[in-house]
Write a structure and sequence with these properties.
The radius of gyration is 22 Å and the shape is elongated. The chain is an alpha/beta fold. The strands form 2 sheets. The chain has a 7-stranded mixed sheet, with helices on both faces.
């Protein structure tokens, strides 16, 4: 028989993402409607180990759904990757009466949630990452806002690139996943897209492409470069030297993490947050909420972490076809 959950903890871990506040708000208010006590843990697993735990009421999440970042703050915590840290975290949860935990973050955060579940704390994960790199879900909290922020910035860079007849290398976030780069490459009509999953590091092909484009009368050239490839400034110098075309690098950086979340991120994050509470109330644990084939669903965390996500071959191919 599944145990009854009375007190639910919620934390955000890893990189922040727009929509995390919408998820926190949904967790707090859905839990209160269900008659549960809610505890907020500040600064992720680091805050849990430091017992930075606060009571959360409905009014504590008022006027937060439109705010970027996370009101609970976030941090990375190496101590929680150790068995000793994980045991200590579970004991602190029990000390504060937390029998259910909702963890909002990416793969690393889910591994922590997995360990809490193994120590007897019913735990549900929510996919909060701008990188869209969690395999069990077609949506992650923050991606929609981040990709729209990047798209709008790239449009602005294109304007000046066109005016000066330049080549622009625009670096977007994504260390191990190229989804922001791919989507922006298609949305912004980039001539080349460099993805960690696909790039062969043959710079000469890019040089040849620029030269051929100039011969055809094209007056500007946009390259979207994912953070995982990086080195945009040195790449720009080499391309300018090889082509004779003025080339500039723009690194968008952490602006992609900030800003007011889009409608999609607010609605989907709210739905996921409420669903996480409902799953805990049903006695479920070691689950992650995802969105797949038009439905919000829950998956076993172990299975979710074992899945691998790959770039769509079709989207990657059409990104090339549409840049002709």
């Amino acid at each position: 028989m599944s145990k009854e959950i009375n007190t639910i903890g919620v934390l955000t871990s890893g990189g922040d993402a727009p929509g995390m506040n919408a998820a926190i708000r949904a967790v707090v208010r859905e839990a209160i409607v269900k008659g549960k006590i809610v505890k907020g843990i500040k600064r992720g697993y680091a805050g849990l180990l430091q017992e930075e735990i606060i009571d959360m009421r409905a009014k504590d999440v008022s006027d937060t759904i439109q705010r970027g970042g996370t009101i609970l703050q976030t941090a990375r915590c190496m101590e929680f990757t150790t068995p000793e840290g994980q045991q200590a975290g579970a004991e602190i949860c029990k000390k504060h009466g937390i029998d259910g935990m909702i963890v909002i973050g990416g793969d690393g955060s889910f591994r922590g949630a997995q360990k809490l579940a193994a120590h007897g704390i019913n735990t549900i994960g929510l996919p909060g990452t701008i990188d869209l790199d969690i395999a069990c879900t077609e949506y992650t909290i923050g991606f929609d806002t981040a990709v729209n922020t990047a798209m709008e910035a790239i449009d602005k860079v294109r304007d000046t690139s066109t005016s000066h007849e330049r080549c622009s290398i625009i670096e977007v976030m994504g260390r191990g996943a190229g989804y922001i780069a791919l989507w922006c490459g298609i949305a912004n009509g980039a001539e080349d897209i460099l993805l960690p999953e696909k790039y062969d590091y043959d710079e000469q092909k890019i040089v040849n492409h620029i030269i051929e484009s100039r011969k055809k009368g094209k007056q500007h050239y946009i390259i979207i470069n994912a953070e995982g490839i990086g080195h945009s400034a040195s790449m720009a110098k080499r391309i300018e030297a090889a082509t004779g075309v003025e080339t500039r690098a723009t690194i968008l950086g952490h602006m992609q993490r900030g800003g007011s979340p889009t409608c999609k991120d607010r609605v989907y994050a709210s739905t996921m947050g409420a669903m996480a509470v409902d799953l805990l109330c049903e006695g479920k644990t070691n689950r992650v909420v995802g969105y797949l084939h038009g439905e919000f669903r829950d998956f076993d965390i172990d299975e979710a972490l074992a899945m691998e996500k790959e770039i769509s071959e079709y989207q990657f191919q059409i990104s090339k076809n549409l840049s002709v």
